[in-house]
């Protein structure tokens, strides 16, 4: 049985990350309207911090990374945190479909930033695949864009800041360990959320506490998978698999929240899957041709 390549491992990790983050969103929804956003952010990142610290100590890694990379680590942490709070703000003040579409611009931006700043080469199938996946996202979300402009602007800012943060994950490849990057981000986000959380803290019920713990666990392991995915494969190639979260969210919403599955949603989900398969098959064929050329 052939061993998986680094790129294939990155693809699988990105898909697993999408599943974990979709599960986290279900936990966010189930936690109800009583729990403030910053309290959810705090729980997510405090659990991520504990998980990352345990793994760092076990593997004898640097907790916060080398000094020469601190400005880039702070940049990743800042833009990542900004991406979280802006999308949470948008989700609380705009139609979910509108927010979902604008936040799904980030794979386009990751591809663009990776080509410009990381000098990655763009294959002829990546842009069509991204457009196909985005079209599927539009069908699933069915946005109206009747929301107020400010929350929509926050959703767009979230896609930009997330794009920057994800691109930096690829930059850290072979420079800073993935667990150190996660530790830095989790610590920054947890500390930054404390002042607002304390001012508006709500004691959770046992069920809400369980949801908060689920948010933290799904979020922390989703972040680990996401971080390693961007290290194992070029950002411009692996970002399209982030759209796998759309069909995952559809299925989980149907199973746990009783949300309906419309024909357009099913078609949209199929387009997302088709785009992912297209990129995977093209990458596999390209790798096969390169291997043939290397043979005498």
Automatic annotation (TrEMBL):
Record carries keyword Transmembrane helix: yes
Q: EamA domain: which residues?
A: 9-140, 150-280
Q: Give the protein's recorded name.
A: DMT family transporter
Keyword Hydrolase attached = no
Q: Where in the cell is it found?
A: Membrane
The portions of this protein that span the membrane are 42-61, 73-91, 97-118, 125-143, 149-169, 181-203, 209-228, 240-258, 264-283
Q: Name one GO cellular component term.
A: membrane
Q: How does it sit in the membrane?
A: Multi-pass membrane protein
Matching entries from InterPro entries are given as:
EamA_dom (IPR000620), EmrE-like (IPR037185)
Q: Name one Pfam family in it.
A: EamA
What family classification does the UniProt entry report for this protein? Belongs to the EamA transporter family.
């Amino acid at each position: 049985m052939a061993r998986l390549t680094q790129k294939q491992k990155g693809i699988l990790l990105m898909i697993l990350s999408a599943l974990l983050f979709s599960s986290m969103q279900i936990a966010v929804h189930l936690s109800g309207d009583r729990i403030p956003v910053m309290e959810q952010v705090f729980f997510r990142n405090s659990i991520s911090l504990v998980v990352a610290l345990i793994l760092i100590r076990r593997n004898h890694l640097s907790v916060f990374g080398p000094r020469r990379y601190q400005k880039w680590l702070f940049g990743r942490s800042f833009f990542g945190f900004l991406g979280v709070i802006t999308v949470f703000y948008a989700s609380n003040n705009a139609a979910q479909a509108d927010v979902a579409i604008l936040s799904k611009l980030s794979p386009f931006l990751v591809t663009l930033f990776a080509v410009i700043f990381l000098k990655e080469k763009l294959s002829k199938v990546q842009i069509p695949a991204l457009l196909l996946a985005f079209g599927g996202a539009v069908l699933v979300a069915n946005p109206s864009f009747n929301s107020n402009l400010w929350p929509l602007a926050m959703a767009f800012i979230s896609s930009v800041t997330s794009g920057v943060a994800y691109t930096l994950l690829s930059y850290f490849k072979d420079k800073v360990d993935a667990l150190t990057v996660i530790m830095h981000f989790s610590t920054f986000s947890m500390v930054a959320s404390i002042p607002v959380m304390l001012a508006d803290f709500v004691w959770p019920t046992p069920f809400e506490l369980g949801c908060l713990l689920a948010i933290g666990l799904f979020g922390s392991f989703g972040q680990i998978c996401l971080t390693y995915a961007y290290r194992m494969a070029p950002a411009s190639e692996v970002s399209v698999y982030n759209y796998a979260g759309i069909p995952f969210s559809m299925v989980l919403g149907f199973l746990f929240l009783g949300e309906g599955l419309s024909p357009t949603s099913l078609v949209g989900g199929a387009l997302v899957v088709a785009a992912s398969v297209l990129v995977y098959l093209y990458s596999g064929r390209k790798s096969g041709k390169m291997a043939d050329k290397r043979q005498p």
